[in-house]
Amino acid sequence: MTIKDLFLKNRKQFFKYIFGAFLTIFNSLAFTFALSMAFSIIEANDTSTIINRLFLMILFAFSPILLQMLSRFLRIGFMRDVLIQVRCLAYEKIMNLSIEEYRSQAKENYMALVVSDINVFEKDFFLSILNIVFSFGSFVVGIIIMFFISPLIALSTVFASSLLFIVTRVYEKPTRNIKKKTQEANAEYTIQLSNILNGLEVIKLYQVESNFRSPFYAIVSKLEEIKKTAFRIDEFQFNINAWIATSFQTLVYIYATYLFIQDKLSLSSLIIVFNLIGQLIWGMINGFSFINRFTAARDIFNRITKTDIKNEASHPFIFKESINLKNLSFNYGEKNILNNMNFNINVGDKILMTGPSGVGKTTLLDCLSKNLSSYQGEILVDGIELKDINRDDFLKHTGYVRQNHFMFNDSIKYNIILNMDYNEEKFKQCLIDSALYDWVETLELKENHILEQDGTNISGGQRQRISIARELYHDRDILFVDEPSASLDDQTSLKIYETLLNLDKTIICVSHRHIDYLSSRFNKIIALEKGVNR
Description:
This protein is of the alpha/beta class. Helix content is 66%, strand content 11%.
């Protein structure tokens, strides 16, 4: 979605917003006319004229209050709807990332996207539209009024405004560039700060505070230096515009005073010129600067919402015979993790992958489970390359028991069934098979017991077993299992393995514990050593 699409989608509310913004034009004009009426009372010759002008003065003086309330009421709907849509678009952008794409950036970058960047967009976007409408609307109305007073002053004001526009265009690109650099530096600062806060206990335990001080100070200095540059750009632009505006305003004051002395301009008209010319010329400086801010807000909108158009693989997932790995290799940068691996996985196989830490067991599992697609070689599912299989269809038939599944701030039941329909008998069996049933029965609310975010109010072993129960309940054809016994005692581990091995499914499991026992239970062993199966 582009900014244009955003306007078109919300055109009714947008027209209300524009009309509401347009009403603000009359606030400053009302003050000018109120002041003009006050001075025109001096020129009045009879009581009736004085009363009429006094009434108009009071009307003009108090009308901005009502206009401001009406303006706000008209603008609030567009602001609400746009922010809802932008936040939803940011959410969809993140949700549409593959796991591999998601892992390519720190989580703090996504937090900056949906929090900091949206806050900046909210401030600059709506404020820019409001001020652009106000400034240019006031200018048009003011120039029309000025033409009736002095065509020469009106035309010269248009000329001076053109000079201000040229200055603004010169500074547009530097303003956008420095805004982008500020966003990037803010993201770096957030990542660095999050890294320190997440590891604060370790930092203090090992007394290495000084090791993190210099990098933190460096990113802070970089951020403030960029902000300083941004301030200088704004200051240079403002000073040039201020010089043009002040010089022009002074000349108009002199010329208008001359006309008044020559009786070619009334006192009330002189007051209007004195008040209006400053509003027009400084209003245009404000309006042109907000054009640059609107452009920067558009860039932020694109950053928040724009997604790369990808041609999603179209082949359905059909696994009736075998998965064949041919010369499979994988690198993290220049580091080789997997090297020319070749083996087959048949339907119903119970495969155990073993090997020391760091040889690529989890990486291999991620390649097979479509979490990593930047591998070399081939993974053929019944002859179809895995990269060409539709991801959504693939996920409907496969499950993944990770070492740590995320726990939502919700009930145990919800954390297990998620989007599935609830089947009490099936749910109970999953609790039994994952060695959770006895524990759940001791809880006051049983399966409705609420977990805190990421299960911080339960043990690591309980989180592990809930993640296993989740996959058992979802009942997929292929189950990828990464160290299912990592947080479990031996007795519970063996029960979990028995449950997995008795499933009528294809099981692909990574483990470095209970190897002697597991070797006799799995029908195929893949022992990895430095990324090679032997």
